Amino acid sequence: GNGTADAVKGLASPRADGTKQPFVIGVSGGTASGKTTVCDMIIQQLHDHRVVLVNQDSFYHGLTEEQSEHVQDYNFDHPDAFDTDQLLECMGKLKSGQSVNIPIYDFKNHRRCSESFRKVNASDVIILEGILVFHDQRVRDLMDMKIFVDTDADIRLARRIRRDTDERGRDVISVLEQYGRFVKPAFDDFVLPSKKYADVIIPKGGDNHVAIDLIVQHIRTKLGQHDLCKIYPNVFVVHTTFQI
Ligand code: ADP
Ligand code: C5P
Fold this sequence. Notes:
7 strands; 244 residues; globular; binds adenosine-5'-diphosphate; binds cytidine-5'-monophosphate; 5-stranded parallel β-sheet; alpha/beta
């Protein structure tokens, strides 16, 4: 086959104007698995690069008045709960170097903030985090690297109870009811089956410093190759398979 093309495949290529395309990382895993914690650690360690974090949660559809009255019956863990077309539009813009306004979602009233947005600028690295970021093939296809944070369900439930009662305005009973009725079934139906798309699976989430170090090292190597591609677009870049 075509050795050079094969070797460079999977590596975001420079745009026609010679500027780099951002390196896109998807981070998925069940609720409260430690996705945000892992992303924060990666961002911290990549301090000398421009990195932005995009949360799938920002693209939740806001509930209508009627849905709000029966919020306990709403499935926030089903793929249809997200506006994936809007997510794709925002990611597309960011990938092409434009800045975007991302909605701000409020977990207490299940709505988007109507007045303000979060402005996200173009960057070297874009991290897209969420329970279902590997579900839709169009979203997966944006990603240069896919990470799944794997944490036992009992640990996740314990963390979720603590977080949702502390930060998301819930009581323990409602968290447990929602977990049994929607969160766990949707994890089994949609989140777990998408684990097979991951390039890297991190056991123990943010506690796994070895995995985070390896991932950051790999991203640095890839960003270096980006720069090489920019300077020497025809150079042969050897890349190795990455496994933990
Ligand atoms: P996710 O983004 O997957 O929902 P977070 O990273 O926000 O998960 O973590 C969920 C909750 O669990 C947060 O309250 C966080 O502080 C806590 N948490 C995350 N990782 C750990 C850990 N390794 N040890 C203890 N608590 C943790
Ligand atoms: O941060 P985390 O990945 O846990 O966020 C996803 C979870 O948020 C889903 O499991 C969903 O049940 C929950 N959620 C909620 N209320 C909303 C929106 C999402 O409990 N209004």
